[in-house]
Fold this protein.
Amino acid sequence: MVQERLNDTTAANGSSHRPARGSSTRAVHGGTPRRKAFSALTTPIVQTATYTFRDTQDLMEYMERKTWGDGDDREEYGRYGNPTVAAVERKLAALDGGEDAVLYASGMNAVTSLLLSVLSAGGHIVMTDDCYRRTRQFCLTFLQRFGIETSVVPMGDYAALEAAIIPKKTRFIISESPTNPYLRVANLERIAALGKKYRALTVIDSTFATPVNQRPLEWGIDFVVHSATKYLSGHNDLLAGVVVGRADRIKALRDARGVLGGVVDPQNAYLLERGVKTLAVRVKQQNQSALAVARFLEAHPRIERVWYPGLPSHPDHDTAAAQMSGFGGVVSFEVAGDLQATARFIDHLRIPYIAPSLGGVESLIEQPALMSYYEKTSEERLALGIKDNLVRFAIGIEDTEDILNDLDQALAAV
Ligand SMILES: *Cc1c(COP(=O)(O)O)cnc(C)c1O
């Protein structure tokens, strides 16, 4: 039956005998039961901090089931679970082709909770560079205080990555893909193979790709992390994060979340699920605009260099073409000019807002030298790979033609 097929998450990775569904059908129906409470079409927002028991007998039966049974049939307290949160977790698991997912209060909360839940003193992490600044800061400063060391290796150097692994000590291999701001793409198969060889857990921060463009679990990666603040919610109006993976591992993370406390409130979970339903429609539009923008900029005399994995000039184009179905909505580029000329170009743009973040319906633009790295000198920034004339353009869902025209007039003004 068509209805059954739409709700069957096992078909999500295309491994079942049933035809794999398209990403937009998955975004709308994936992981979502046909029947919901009150026969509502949408997921009800269960706005409660706690859950009640009819009487002591009811409480004791619940405790017995919880202690000895398999699977809870109800929630106990808001930090341990919420039906609206659980609904969006099931949808995000289905989209990434994972068994389960756990939702957190922000993307950073997802990253830090995952690492804190698994690591012990004496543990070791290998991480690729060109990585989200706060993830790197958490590993290199916070975790180091607890006796956990992190080795940072150059993105794309798999010999260096393997050499950095300390057998029996390295618990995690962490990479983003694509990365920020250079859109470097990790070879997921190679990272997964190194994880298996050395019994280290592999983590891919797939925020920039979304499950529409890339599904790392299908390449053998253990955990996928997203800042759901970005494309998944898609409207620049909430913060959330998610980790997707094998059911037993996600259950352990959910138990740890009950201790660490990084829960999302039900209202935000509802907004996230609402946003996810249009994920594929938005991302396909963003992919298409970004490719057009990248090609336009690469051909423009006032642009020195463009970083976009969809361009053959990008160092990881072949890897991206092999493992992604779209190249994403972020384009980074270097303006032919200094810090001030680049800022003038940005100030002449009429469509994008100047703001950090990405992945929403509104285009956002930033000059990393002045946004994320303002307090550093030009030399310090260069050492981190951030040039003064670098621009990160996170494309929204405005019409492609309008975005191109806007870039054209602003470049003419530089
Ligand atoms: C934004 C972002 C994060 C952090 O997510 P928050 O929701 O802002 O906490 C982590 N990784 C990447 C790649 C991001 O873009």
